[in-house]
Design brief:
heterodimer; A: 382 residues; alpha/beta; 7 strands; 41% helix; 11% strand; globular; B: 1153 residues; FAD/NAD(P)-binding domain; Alpha-Beta Plaits; Rossmann fold; 23% strand
């Protein structure tokens, strides 16, 4: 049974309450380093490892900014040795799930990092966030934005849509975090909901001595409504993407704008190779090969191997794709990478009844041998 | 000319292959012969084996030095550099002494030159003969010229002369002139008739004229002999036994002395039947009945000529002989309809188990045959009847075939899996049996899961009648009596007769040739405690040669026979000091710009007639790396290879691509060519261009453009792989500590130790008790009346006196590290602590009689275990004469969860004690409560005898088990009698419990050696069927009771088999890895460890000190799972890198024009 506590919200200032909670974690919880989004300058929010609680004034986990998926940073903080002090990180649900995948791939370690996650209201693309924040006090803007969104009103400015990945995301609450902060469906309560989900979370929360509370039913309904809306958006997106990529020529058209910059791979939180196979000698083609290919096709699109690149990444990573949308965010040419990945991932993950990030104990399917599976392909024979 | 081999293995079924491979892997040259024109024996026909319900024969392939044998499907063929195969070959004599035998072989001809046959099938298509196909168990028909096993590689047609009608159409049709009927030899096949019968000479001359044999006749014996001596071309003698003045035996001996190859045909009337038989044994070839009928005699004489003119005689010098003769399956006699053959061959729905396997097989007549043979409706019900041709004294078979129960359960499971209706509902499966003999270690669970999970129904009864169902004419009505004697009827769509194993028909002849004895059942007579020994020293029995066995036990028996052979070979032709064959020196060409020589084989016209060769050659020549494209007239023959070598010497290519057929068959040839040219065979390849060409040739209007493209693509893909082939680094090799450790000093441990030590390698036995011997020391007698005490005493003495064996009693293993070839083990004991360095380990930790604490086992002296009864009867402590009645309860607390396995020895133990009791006091009443009597194999006769002696057997099941109470110390047993259908009560003087055996507790030891246990605590083998004494961890082997329950002979066999496996490691100074092994590109590796998870051979591990992934090249089998799971090609497989694979894909897409 999870421990449930509350943090009062003064004058509707959500961010202040969140900051206060983070402050407590460092002061009372004994956290020596806290990874949290921090305002770094006009229109820029970046994860930072905070060691001085005073700096938490700039912390803003509510900001609708998502410049990168911090799972890789969490992995770096925990891999290959002890950090030398208690670490905590504030991660979005998709960051948490990507981190869990990285832990399964031996790239990070859950032992050394306490994870705090807020209900995720979504974020803008990098470009849109700059528009959103332009000329405003950024924390004030975040606060207002979140308040309006939670009240069911369109946030100002209303003409800026959230990133597509966020609108299609059916995971507003993190699974596997030590502590979650509940925002959704808490409007009437006048406080945030703090929940511990693990023994470590319980221990941490006990140190903070927060007053107990109950899980309000309104929250459940609000979450269900939110997820239903996002799922509908997602399914529509799947349908459109499937139609647009139904054949090889269509897929080639879909990916036509790709310049092979590999930004999507760099931004992908679960692409964990030290060096991508597309940068190795495997793709060092001989000059005569190019001419040979060109002759076969009458004109050879350059750079080559861009479709293969995306197919390969789909083969390698679609099972672990958490749908954070950073690939699309990073694409300089607006290739709808996220849509393609999520659409394919939905099928591959379904095939193995696998959900990335659901649990660190759930092995990645391709590493597991099942004597009996895919009966529809094997005809029921072993 | 004599050829020398270390061993001759007769019979190329799985046991023969196992024995040959075992010896070949230790470096011995082996001749493997089979009378059939194919290898694989019965298993060529069976796709699925229990308990895995899959094939898996390939698991027998060598794990180290993999390159010495082609690694592919073993049901298709076997190539090993140390094994020479002689098919259609029989052993006709064996002279000499152990270690120095001369084996005489006769190799029959298939009349088709395998080097010319391209497998096009034109011969078969024109052959007018149709006979039942042996391969499909008679379910389909074949021509006289046919492929004996359609999936064999290489595969060439053979002429079945027995059914050939000599129309010669196949000969005329063959496009490559591969079929040779020796037409040229007829003119020199001089035939002589020795007969005084008036007119016979004239008419014989007339008949033989058609055969074109020069013919002469003599009317007196002496004149005939003179003619034999003078005519150098005389090849056939027709000898009339009515010839006046003929002393038949002397005459024949003289004639064969003059001409050993002379074909002697006896012309014998009925009164000479006995004499003719004698003369045949003395070397006459054939008997023709008098009076001669030309219609019958002429074809026979012609075929005799064909055989004589085509066959080869071989003489091999061998140190040891292994007989792996297997068994035939019983054919229910169709004539005896109404007996228990139940209408086989009369009623359409009655089939044998072999036929049923063919029906289920992917290579069979088609699964659509699984309709009711009567009316073509789907099969929804299948019934099996056990013991057809086994356990049937009426048919002269007093033994149990041991394998049919498990085969039927497997078939029932397959039927449930495969025969489903449109709603996915499986067909009903029912097995009718007297006992279900699931006596293998984990077989009881297999049976239980068939019953409980898969829904197979088991009925204890024997069907006595099968007839067409009155309600449904396409179905069969079965009638049987249930246990209570009530007559039952039910309908089925198929009735499968579980046919038993019979000694092979030609075994008596083979036994005569090898001078070994047969037992009363017609199998080879073998020693009781040593089932691999026959009655002749130096001739060993493998597989089912001595008794019917399942695959796992056949392979154990094969391993044991190989070990015995190896021991003998080691004395006469020791390998130990053998200098390793020098590795050929190869040029380093990996960094040179690729220069490819392409040779296209044009030995048969198929390719040239199907594709535009000029265009193909021109296109290949235009490829950047190709320096020359040549046509080779006969790529598959020696001159063809010489031509390739010549071209290579001239053009100096650094890659060679051959376009031919059957790439697998070329592996040894490439090795030879590589050695001759100094070019690593890894830089050569054979692309199969004939399969597409031949497929097209069978079509009516082949698309020549598409075919040309396919042939080009095939060659181009191979070219792309070759061009990108990289320098192969030195193969890794690990040094070997040539010593063995045996844990456990009982029967199995000591037997294994002696086997290894006899080869000259030091062995240490670690025994936890104070003395050697183990559980077998408690036995006093055997069912067959042998003396186990003496056998054990001899064995202990042999071990203690052996100069190569060190015994550490009162000791145990405390730590073990290392891998195959290099283990380091710490032993602690009476003599202190010692560290042993050894290359291999055998775990033979044994077991014990299971303890029982209920039924007053300790409290009431009237309750005993079988072993206690045996000991008390032997010591005289218990007087059989004073006993009035004895009750025995079998399967006490076993074959049910907790200890759900058959202990295998308790039924034998009960029968043994029961015979002792009844021999001493025939008046004793003996009651045996049993579930299934497991008197498998020849033990069955003791069960039959026990019933004859009056012992009463009462079956019980788990729902109604016998209840025991005690009245003043006297046991009172209440049990349900299934025949009477009511409870009975008996109060015997003593109650004997068959408690079974259990393994010793070895959890700690198993952990030290990194080996797994079954849920019952026995050692778990790498594969239950094909690797029965191996652990998955290479270099550690298992033997004896710790592996599985069994009798002494069976433990001796597993110990010898384990010793043979261990010898494979000790026989070389180093262990060599294969050429194709995985490597890690550490600079790319992210250490995610998925490659470790997916490696099926445990060859990869994380080195925590170095912080990197390491591959054990010896364990790596080159399967490529790691490269598939690694996202960035940090895991790579030598010889299969990404560039080669992608290059091949590109090459496949290139256009021909």
């Amino acid at each position: 049974m999870a421990t449930t506590a509350k943090i009062e919200v003064q004058n509707g200032n959500l961010l202040q309450s969140v900051q206060a909670f983070l402050h407590m974690l460092m002061d009372d919880g004994g956290v020596a380093g806290l990874l949290t989004p921090l305002h770094m300058g006009p229109g820029v929010v970046m994860p930072a490892l905070v060691t001085e609680p005073e700096r938490l004034k700039q912390a803003d986990p509510l900001a609708p900014a998502f410049p990168l998926n911090a799972a890789r940073i969490a992995a770096k903080l925990t891999r290959g040795g002890s950090p030398g002090g208690t670490l905590a990180a504030v991660l979005r649900p998709c960051e948490m799930r990507a981190f869990t995948e990285l832990v399964k791939l031996n790239q990070g370690n859950l032992e050394d990092l306490a994870i705090v996650s807020l209900d995720c209201l979504g974020a803008y693309t990098n470009a849109d966030y700059r528009t959103f924040a332009a000329g405003r006090e950024p924390r004030e803007a975040s606060n207002q934005w979140a308040g309006q969104l939670l009240a069911g009103r369109s946030p100002d400015p209303a003409d800026l849509p959230l990133a597509k990945a966020c609108r299609a995301c059916e995971h507003p609450v993190a699974t596997g975090a030590d502590i979650t902060l509940g925002l959704i469906g808490m409007r009437g309560a006048g406080h945030l909901l703090v929940k511990a989900h693990t023994p470590r979370g319980e221990a941490l929360l006990a140190k903070l001595r927060l007053p107990d509370t109950a899980d309000p039913t309104a929250r459940k309904d609000a979450l269900a409504e939110l997820v239903a809306g996002r799922t509908a958006f997602r399914d529509e997106m799947f349908e459109k993407t499937r139609a647009a990529t139904a054949s090889m020529p269509q897929l080639a058209d879909y990916l036509a704008a790709c310049v092979g910059c590999y930004n999507c791979r760099a931004a992908c939180p679960v692409c964990y190779c030290r060096e991508c196979v597309f940068l190795t000698d495997v793709f060092d083609h001989k000059p005569w090969q190019y001419l040979g290919w060109a002759k076969g096709k009458s004109a050879l699109r350059m750079p080559t191997d861009t479709v293969l690149f995306h197919l390969t990444r789909l083969a390698h990573m679609s099972l672990s794709c958490v749908g954070c949308g950073q690939c699309s965010n990073a694409c300089p040419n607006d290739v709808p990478v996220m849509e393609l990945f999520r659409t394919v991932a939905a099928r591959t993950q379904e095939a193995f009844a696998y959900e990335p990030g659901r649990s660190p104990d759930e092995p990645i399917p391709l590493s597991v041998f099942q004597a009996k599976e895919f009966a529809e392909i094997t005809g029921g024979r072993d | 000319m004599k050829t020398t081999y270390a061993a001759l293995v007769v019979g190329a079924g799985v046991a023969g292959i196992r024995a040959a491979l075992d010896l070949a892997e230790t470096g011995q040259k082996v001749a493997l012969v089979d009378r059939k024109p194919h290898l694989g024996g019965l298993l060529t026909q069976l796709d699925y084996q229990f308990p895995t319900n899959a094939c898996g024969m390939c698991k027998m392939l060598p794990l180290t030095e993999r390159d010495s044998s082609s690694q592919f499907c073993m049901r298709k063929g076997l190539f090993h550099k140390n094994i020479d195969m002689f098919l259609s070959t029989e052993l006709t004599g064996l002279d000499g002494d152990p270690g120095q035998f001369t084996a005489f072989l006769r190799q029959g001809s298939s009349f088709v030159d395998p080097t010319k046959c391209i497998g096009c099938g034109a011969c078969s298509a024109v052959c007018p003969v149709r006979v039942p196909s042996e391969f499909n168990a008679g379910l389909t028909e074949r021509a006289a010229v046919h492929l004996p096993v359609p999936h064999n590689i290489p595969n060439s047609y053979v002429v079945d002369l027995d059914h050939c009608i000599r129309c010669w159409r196949c000969h005329e049709t063959c496009p490559t002139e591969a079929i040779d009927f020796q037409f040229n030899r007829r003119a020199t096949f001089h035939t002589l008739l020795a007969s005084a019968e008036p007119g016979l000479a004239e008419s014989a001359a007339e008949w033989i004229k058609d055969l074109l044999f020069p013919f002469a006749a003599e009317t007196a014996p002496e004149a005939a002999l003179e003619q034999i001596a003078q005519d150098e071309h005389l090849a056939m003698l027709l000898l009339d036994l009515d010839l006046p003045g003929l002393e038949p035996e002397r005459f024949l001996a003289r004639a064969l002395e003059l001409k050993p190859e002379l074909v002697v045909v006896l012309l014998a009337g009925p009164q000479h039947a006995e004499l003719a038989g004698k003369l045949k044994a003395a070397g006459a070839r054939l008997v023709l009945d008098k009076p001669l009928k030309p219609k019958a005699a002429v074809p026979v004489l012609d075929k005799t000529f064909l055989r004589a003119a085509s066959e080869k005689r071989l003489e091999l010098s061998v140190a040891a002989v292994v007989l792996a003769t297997g068994f035939d399956t019983y054919t229910p006699c169709p004539e005896s309809f109404g007996a228990d053959t139940l209408g086989y061959k009369v009623l359409p729905g009655v089939v044998t188990s072999v036929e049923f396997e063919r029906m289920l097989s992917g290579s069979g007549p088609g699964r659509d045959r699984l309709t009711r043979p009567g009316d073509g409706k789907p099969v929804r019900r299948v019934a099996w009847l056990q013991c057809v041709g086994s356990r049937d004294l009426g048919k002269g078979v007093g033994y149990c075939s041991s394998i049919c129960c498990m085969i039927s359960i497997k078939e029932a499971l397959l039927a449930r899996q495969m025969l489903k209706d449109e709603n996915g509902e499986p067909a009903a499966a029912t097995i009718f049996s007297m006992d279900m003999r699931t006596f293998g270690r984990d077989y009881q669970r297999y049976r239980d899961s068939a019953e409980e999970e898969a829904g197979v129904r088991f009925v204890k009864s024997r069907i006595h009648t099968a007839m067409p169902s009155p309600d449904d004419p396409g179905a069969l009505r079965l009638r049987y009596m249930d246990e209570s004697g009530e007559l039952k009827e039910e309908d089925t769509d198929l009735l499968v007769l579980a046919v038993g194993a019979r000694p092979p028909k030609d075994l008596p002849a083979l036994a005569r040739a090898a001078q070994v004895e047969l037992n009363e059942h017609g199998f080879l007579r073998t020693r009781h405690f040593d089932p691999s020994r026959t009655t002749r020293l130096g001739v060993f029995a493998a597989g089912s040669a001595g008794a019917p066995r399942d695959i796992a036990e056949s392979l154990i028996a094969a391993g044991a026979a190989a070990m015995e052979a190896s021991r003998l070979i080691n004395i006469y032709a020791p390998l130990k000091e053998k200098v390793a064959e020098p590795e050929p020196e190869y040029r380093d060409v990996g960094r040179e710009a690729p220069k490819v020589l392409v040779a296209l084989c044009t030995s048969c016209p198929v390719l040239e007639s199907a594709v535009d060769m000029e265009a193909l050659i021109a296109r290949l020549q235009s490829q950047p790396a190709v320096i020359a494209v040549a046509r080779i007239d006969a790529g598959c023959t020696a001159p063809g290879w010489e031509k390739i070598a010549e071209l290579a010497r001239e053009k100096r290519p650094n890659r060679i691509l051959l376009g031919a057929c059957m790439p697998y068959a070329y592996v040894p040839k490439l090795r030879e060519l590589g050695a001759a040219l100094g070019l690593n065979p890894a830089f050569m390849d054979v692309a199969d261009v004939y399969t597409p060409a031949m497929t097209a040739a069978r079509e009516e209007n082949p698309d020549r453009t598409a075919l040309g493209r396919e042939v080009f693509a095939t060659l181009n893909m191979a070219l792309a792989r070759l061009v990108r082939a990289d320098t192969l680094r030195q193969r890794s090799a690990a040094p070997v500590y040539r010593q063995a450790l045996v844990v456990g000093g009982g029967l199995a441990g000591m037997t294994a130790a002696v086997g290894i030590a006899d080869h000259g390698y030091p062995v240490t036995i670690v025994e936890s008790e104070e003395a050697l011997g183990g559980a077998a020391m408690r036995l006093r007698t055997t069912l067959e009346g042998r003396d186990p005490q003496r056998y054990m005493a001899d064995l202990v003495e042999q071990v203690e006196k052996h100069p190569n064996i060190t015994v550490r009693t009162d000791s145990r293993v405390v730590l073990s590290m290392g891998k195959a070839g290099a283990f380091s083990t710490v032993v602690y004991g009476r003599d202190g602590v010692a560290t042993l360095e050894h290359g291999t380990t055998i775990l033979a930790t044994g077991g014990r009689e299971a303890k029982v604490y209920d039924y007053g086992f300790r409290v009431h002296p009237a309750t005993l275990t079988q072993v206690e009864l045996e000991q008390r009867l032997a010591s005289g402590e218990l007087d059989a004469g004073a006993l009035g009645s004895v009750a025995m309860i079998q399967c006490w607390r076993s074959r049910e969860e907790g200890r759900n396995y058959c202990s295998r020895i308790c039924c034998a133990g009960a029968l043994k004690n029961l015979h002792t009791l009844l021999r001493k006091n025939p008046g004793i009443k003996v009651f045996v409560f049993y579930r299934d009597i497991m008197s498998y194999g020849f033990m069955e006769q003791f069960y039959t005898e026990a019933r004859r002696l009056g012992a009463i057997f009462i079956r019980y099941d788990l729902e109604n088990r016998p209840q025991v109470a005690f009245d003043n110390g006297k046991p009172r047993i209440t049990a349900r009698d299934p025949v009477l259908g009511e409870d009975i009560q008996i109060s015997p003087d003593i109650l004997v419990l068959s408690t079974g055996v259990e393994p010793n507790d070895v959890e700690e030891l198993a952990e030290q050696f990194g080996v797994p246990l079954t849920e019952d605590g026995f050692y778990r083998e790498a594969e239950p069927k094909w690797r029965p004494v191996d652990f998955l961890k290479y270099g550690v082997f298992m033997a004896g009771l710790a592996r599985a329950p069994g009798n002494m002979g069976e433990h001796v066999a597993s110990a010898k088999a384990a010793a043979e496996r261990a010898l494979r490691i000790l026989s070389g100074e180093r262990l060599d890895a294969g050429n194709v092994v995985a490597e890690v590109r550490h600079s790319l590796c992210s250490l995610c460890g998925r490659c470790i998870d997916v490696c099926p051979y445990g060859a990869r591990r994380m080195d925590l000190d170095e912080d990197r992934i390491e591959v054990d090249a010896i364990l790596c089998q080159g399967c490529g799972s790691c490269t598939a799971v690694c996202p960035n090609s940090a895991a790579v497989l030598k010889g299969f890198d990404d560039a080669q694979v992608m290059g091949s894909i590109d090459a496949a897409l290139e256009e021909l024009a």
